[in-house]
Design brief:
By secondary structure, this protein is an alpha+beta fold. 40% of the residues lie in helices and 20% in strands. A hairpin with a 2-residue loop joins strand 6 and strand 7. Bound molecules: adenosine-5'-diphosphate, magnesium ion (MG) and zinc ion.
Length: 476
């Protein structure tokens, strides 16, 4: 009898506001420790929080993008616990009434789509950070992160494999970046995920779940869920019982380890935050936010297929980020004759070369206009596609235009029949045996002659013309 894995995800997404959730401190990443703090985010007594409305707007926008209900009245609560990086002794969060509820996200699975329920999105503040690295016998605390706004996005237990969980996370990651509500840089901790995992026999009620923490890359998330599901299955098959607990993923060993059991779990003693009034929004405010909704990834993919005639694969690749999609659209506007050629050269040639040196499209030394200039020279037969690849290499290296490189290196394609005929005759003179064999019926040798002529021209002869003239001259 088979087992079914059940997964629900809790994702913390850092909202990209300029200032913190309840004070005016900067949220900029990478500053000297404790330089972006004030009495409010340091937890000094008597200091009152003031809600950052940009964080509210961005959470509402995210809620609208997942077709959720926006609660026009929501509440803030105190989540109480002790930890050195939490100077107030509590986090301001939303417990009883979150800002966003009952949404969903459609994810790609095996050629089709699957709808994953999103229970809620609530707004809360981040804690500080304990620093241990390079220190002996002591830890340091950096409170720059204390008070930065987070959206906690809680899914229903709707995923049935590690791959579905990763597909959901990638979709969510792309969505918040398209909405420009988060930079969602996982390496900077701006998109963090906890995974709840249980197993059951299909058709049976849900099993006891464990919560996995410390999952800071898509690869680790997949590994951790797969390891944990196997551990639970083996445990149950050996007559044991899964206990509800929090487990930490150890990425060097690829295993999960118990961190704390249900009995040791925090009782947060939530209660309404007395320093903040209920958050009330007008219906019209929500409608105004809705009117500012940008084009979403799924819509953009469909438009790319229709407007540019791209395959669904190319449309998917080119809409990975808003920056890449915008780059493609500039390129297609500058070389309108062939949107598919634009897609190929951007996705395969330019992106491939940038990736080799760890760069992204936004770091490209070649502009969309410049790449269009290169594609124009392929279109008008000035150079072959093969030579164009060398020109692109040179463009990336020097930042120069295609025309300048073609001119300086004398790469113009030879389309002059006399010149091509001369080259063919030289090749024939140098290979009399092959000519005799070809004439005697060994037609396979045709490719050999094409190769030799192209080589003699150092790739510059127009291949279609070489083919055409060879057929004539070899028959003479
Ligand atoms: P808690 O309040 O303890 O965090 P929640 O009800 O908020 O519990 O659930 C947290 C997450 O756990 C949600 O993402 C939910 O989908 C998921 N979850 C709940 N039950 C299960 C289960 N049996 N198996 C897997 N995930 C589950
Ligand atoms: Mg929870
Ligand atoms: Zn502050």
């Amino acid at each position: 009898m088979s087992w079914e894995v059940v997964i629900g995800l809790e994702v913390h997404v850092q909202v990209n506001t300029k200032t913190k959730a309840f004070c005016g401190c900067s949220t900029a990443f990478g500053a000297e420790p404790n330089t972006q703090t004030c009495p409010v985010c340091l937890g000094m007594p008597g200091q009152l929080p003031v809600l950052n409305m940009d964080a509210v707007t961005k959470t509402v926008l995210t809620g609208l993008a997942i077709d959720a209900t926006i609660n026009l009245e929501s509440r803030f609560d105190r989540k109480n616990y002790f930890y050195p990086d939490l100077p107030k002794g509590y986090q301001i969060s939303q417990f009883a009434i979150p800002l966003v509820e009952h949404g969903h996200l459609d994810i790609p699975v095996g050629g089709g789509e699957k709808r994953i329920g999103i229970t809620r999105i609530h707004l809360e503040e981040d804690a500080g950070k304990s620093l241990h690295e390079g220190l002996e016998g002591v830890s340091h605390i950096d409170l720059n992160r204390s008070g930065i706004p987070l959206m906690e996005i809680v899914s229903e237990p709707d995923m049935r494999s590690a791959d579905e969980a990763v597909a959901y996370l990638k979709q969510l990651h792309q969505l918040v970046r398209f909405l420009d509500v988060s930079d969602a840089d996982m390496e900077k901790g701006q998109f963090r995920c906890d995974a709840n995992v249980s197993v059951r026999r299909p058709g049976q009620p849900f099993g006891t779940r464990t919560e996995l923490k410390n999952l800071n890359s898509f690869r680790f998330i997949k590994q951790a869920i797969e390891y944990e599901a196997m551990r639970q299955i083996e445990l149950i098959e050996d007559g044991g019982k899964v206990v509800q607990e929090t487990r930490l993923f150890d990425s060097t060993k690829g295993v999960t380890r118990s961190m704390r059991s249900k009995e040791e779990a925090h009782d947060y003693r939530y209660f309404p935050e007395p320093d903040l009034p209920p958050l009330r929004l007008e219906r019209e405010q929500v409608e105004q936010i809705r009117r500012g909704m940008p084009e979403l990834p799924a819509q953009m993919r469909r438009r790319f297929e229709q407007e540019y005639g791209l395959s669904s694969y190319d449309a998917e690749v080119l809409t990975q980020t808003r920056e890449l999609a915008a780059w493609y659209e500039s390129l297609a506007a500058a070389h309108p004759a062939d949107p598919k050629r634009c897609a190929n050269w951007l996705a395969n040639e330019l992106l491939g070369r940038l990736k080799e040196s760890g760069r992204d499209i936004v770091d490209s030394p070649v502009s969309a206009q410049q790449l269009a200039g290169l594609l124009d020279r392929i279109a008008d037969n000035t150079i072959s596609g093969k030579i164009a690849k060398d020109v692109l290499d040179a463009m990336i290296e020097s930042g120069e235009d295609a025309d300048a490189i073609i001119e300086a290196r004398g790469l113009k394609q030879v389309t002059d029949t006399t010149a091509i005929d001369d080259m063919i005759r030289e090749v024939m003179a140098a290979n009399p045996e092959q000519v005799a064999q070809y004439k005697a019926g060994k037609e396979k040798l045709f490719g050999f002659f094409v190769g030799q002529v192209m080589k003699a021209s150092r790739g510059k002869a127009n291949p279609a013309m070489v083919n055409e003239r060879l057929k004539v001259l070899l028959r003479e």
